[in-house]
Design goal:
Elements (H helix, E strand, L loop, with lengths): L4 E4 L2 E2 L5 H12 L4 E9 L4 E8 L1 H18 L15 E10 L3 H19 L3 E5 L10 H5 L6 H4 L21 E5 L4 E7 L4 H11 L4 E4 L5 E4 L6 E8 L4 E8 L7 H14 L4 E7 L4 H14 L8 H12 L9 H4 L1 H5 L12 H9 L7 H24 L8 H36 L6 H31 L1 H10 L5 H26 L5 H36 L1
Parallel strand pairs: 5-7, 6-7
Antiparallel strand pairs: 1-4, 1-5, 2-4, 2-5, 3-4, 8-12, 8-13, 9-10, 11-12
Amino acid sequence: MEKRIIECVPNFSEGQDMSVIKQITDVIESVKGVKLLDVDPGKDTNRTVVTFVGDPDAVSEAAFLAVKKASEVIDMSKHHGAHPRMGATDVCPFIPVSGITMDETVVYARKVAERIGKELKIPVYCYENAAFEKKRKNLANCREGEYEGLSKKLTDPAWKPDFGPAVFNKKSGATAVGARDFLVAFNVNLNTTSTRRANAIAFDVREKGRSFKNNKGEQISVPGTLKSVKAIGWYIEEYGIAQISMNLTNISVTPVHIAFDEVCRKADAHGVRVTGSELVGLVPLKSILDAGKYFLEKQQRSAGVSDSELIKIAIKSMGLNDIHPFNPDEKIIEFVMAEKEQRKLIDLNLKSFMEETASESPAPGGGSISSYMGALGVALGTMVANLSSHKKGWDDRWKEFSDWAVKGKEIQNKLLNLVDEDTEAFNKIIAAYGLPKKTDEEKKARNNAVQAATKEAIMVPFKVMETAYSGFALIREMVEKGNPNSVTDAGVGALALRSCIKGAYLNVKINAAGLEDKNLAKEILKKGCDIESKAVIEEEAILKIVDAAILKKS
């Protein structure tokens, strides 16, 4: 399962006294599962932008604690700064990074907003995607009048807060809590020192475009080619070059790679060459992987390759190393978030994984091995798809096989994650049985924990079965239409998938015996039995095709 990560970027109305900001960031860092990424104070604006990421529940808790601490240490009645503001915590946006949708992020944002209003008695307005009404989507509308006009604004029924009292909080003001898309600061490097030419390219691509007067004196606006993009050209003395500096305000509308390619096209039209680019701050893994896929597909090459290969292609294609080295471990959010001290089974090499399995520890066991067998089976199908995509004489079919390879890679990744999830589920059962059981209350809590862990120990291998079974479509396609020289490789993939599914079902059955919810156990067992039966049929059908292909070659 893809790790669920959201980002939070609260802006606090203090940018001069860093001891105050440190009190706020300390409470953020006190929450387990949260990583503080950046603290950016501004003296003139008297405002600090803080960025942190993590699990949605952990980020929500850290955000609330930060707002609470800000309400204690910042006095808005004494605040002055160049930036518009209305509260000690002026804005608190939540941004989906991976494994979570915008709709789900909105739910988290509104829960935090409600808690701020209820527990801290601070008026809260929800904006952007979290807004309850259209006029409040725009942050500028919510903040109109700023802190000084807030007392009067709160008396207007049309501006009753979404959460919290419609009462002026002199010390803390009001807070805007929102949910928005990930913003990427992205600069493209040019082989010129001309700011005028850089600006011309920026105006060509930015959504706002350019405006000018025609020969009748009328103001004409011509929009640029990229939606959700702000851009300007400037000269960087440190680098000795001009750049196009862009804010990609919605990377689901205009991804990084599309912005890069469009700047390349417009630069070429102005006689300017793009020499590379730089990403300012951190970026979601998906942005880099999508870029890698995009540039491979432009070459008519299969995009169903490893993440590391996609990252390498993206870095090379966009020249991300042009000015500064692009270190994925430092620039990709998911990699920065990775708990390096926590060893995962899938991070072990083949020999270490085998030895860990053979050790006297009961985990990893049959469930993890089954999932890994399934991942290897799908990997064989993916290999055949990649070989077929690049087969001489099959150039017109590269996209067909690339699409299958991409699907195979997605299934592989799911099964690899389930290798560790199965072991984690087993460990939760052991931990639950180790809970105290002296009092009736302790016995009840222990039993509830055991049942919850048992249910997870059933559902994880069942998920392995479902995921592995989806790989048969790839294997069948490869033995029927893929590179004939690799038909037996795909056949071995079918064997591995069948074994994976039968092995995972053994885990489902043994754990189902300990589940008190017999109706659920019966339902899962029936579904598992159906998948196992269909897997055997699929395997037999595929092996017949493989055997026929072998006879044909004899």
